[in-house]
């Protein structure tokens, strides 16, 4: 692939690479629940360090509300029942800690290059909320929807003291 074509592809969003309607496009992607034991981490994931504290928070949130966003996976070696995680290894690790047995996935047939692109884009495009945005979101839930700090802490997997500060 030419360098200009590669740059153009890397400029695309994760949604455009996995497809907005990935779960309903025949032959392109399939969305279903698969056992955690059928998944393995990818050697292409650019993230090598996983914060224990953040995994614990994500695990608590997943345990309380389930997995909100499916993992993106690709089939391994033609067996049809084993998959490599392309995007979502943190969610997979947290789901294991939360003692889930299966997780929602989007199954895509991808080359190594496409898998690397999606893995990098997912991590590069992520922009965490700043403290003010995070606080405003918590405030909205507590004021507009009747959550206490303790209730909200359980729902989002953060400590009550985190919410208070």
UniProtKB/TrEMBL annotation:
Q: Which InterPro entries does the entry link to?
A: Chromosome_partition/occlusion (IPR050336), HTH_ParB/Spo0J (IPR041468), ParB/RepB/Spo0J (IPR004437), ParB/Sulfiredoxin_sf (IPR036086), ParB_N (IPR003115)
- UniProt GO MF annotations: DNA binding
* UniProt xrefs under SMART domains: ParB
The protein's matches in Pfam families, at most eight in alphabetical order, are given as: HTH_ParB, ParB_N
A GO BP annotation: positive regulation of sporulation resulting in formation of a cellular spore
Which CDD domains would you find in this protein's record? SPO0J_N
- What keywords would UniProt list here? Chromosome partition, DNA-binding
Please tell me whether the keyword DNA-binding is annotated for this protein. Answer: yes
| GO CC annotation | chromosome
User: What are the ParB-like N-terminal domain coordinates in residue numbering?
Assistant: 32-124
The record's listing under NCBIfam families reads: parB_part
Q: Enumerate the PANTHER family for this protein.
A: CHROMOSOME-PARTITIONING PROTEIN PARB-RELATED (PTHR33375:SF1)
Instruction: Please identify the protein, giving its name as recorded.
Output: ParB-like N-terminal domain-containing protein
The protein's organism comes out as marine sediment metagenome
The organism's lineage is: unclassified sequences, metagenomes, ecological metagenomes
